[in-house]
């Protein structure tokens, strides 16, 4: 019986992973050309930047609300379908926008992020329900690997469409959005099939395995503080790409290729660290943070090709470890009844810290690269220490429960 449940949970997880593959293929493919496309239809640099920043803020901040709604209603599939529909169908609609209605493009791009905010806590929660049978690390790692495969292929397909035609630029972008719409439909069809096949995935996890909720949960509070420092110090790839444009060692035409390599490393790293997490626990996150802290020195201190490429690879390792472990930890410390709320709080806190950290790092870049590196490494080291404290606290609480 247990073996059958494990097999069913695994097939369900693969369904979610393939949906993520088509989803990321669609919206990461689109996001790779948003800037150029908006510029072509007459949107100013200020509005492009504002839309990107506002979109990311909405995509993270709204999760604290959508997570609570998902927990209160238990309508995880409804939140998934609504979120994915808004998130994905906004993209092919961009194919019908030109410079006469450029404002519509901004609204659609913001809606795409809002859609992700609606479905993300529910999706993470559904993934977490398989953790008891597959391991939390492996569950999130498999999802991340398929997710990143889509994120790797989407921009490549868009690049192929744009670079292999003699049509005018705007038409190429519109055709790209149209092709991405096909992938969006694939994701939605699979989503409905998954819902029909697995109407109650919450049954994979027994009720009451974790007793402590969110309010007053010291482990969860400490964890939120710890991940904030991870986000503070982690460098955004757009800034890395901008830096490469200011160096002599990396030709700018290779920047997208390096990003693709980083995404490939991300996927492999997620699988490795996810597996290790299930064997060794949260201490693996501290190891990953220590490795990731090396990316900023390698990329920013010296204008050297080998060092900077090594830094990008380590950056990809850090991304993969984050994606597979950070969400897995939440599934270990928040009960299933409150987990969507937990994921909503997690995403909002992490997103806000990432945003504030990006502002500081961006300002430091213009001031001093050495100061940028010191800030980044210092924040990651603080996070590492806090995670070690978290591990000790977790052991202490586990031992107290055993003695009761």
Question: How would you describe this protein?
Answer:
It is built from 17 helices and no strands. The radius of gyration is 21 Å and the shape is globular. Helix 1 packs parallel to helix 5 (about 75-95), helix 1 packs antiparallel against helix 9 and helix 5 (about 75-95) packs antiparallel against helix 6 (about 100-130). It folds into 2 domains: about 1-205, Growth Hormone, Chain: A; about 220-404, Growth Hormone, Chain: A (Up-down Bundle). The chain has about 400 residues and is mostly helical.
Throw out a few tags for this protein:
single chain, 404 residues, mainly alpha, Growth Hormone, Chain: A, 2 domains, 17 helices, 82% helix, 0% strand, globular
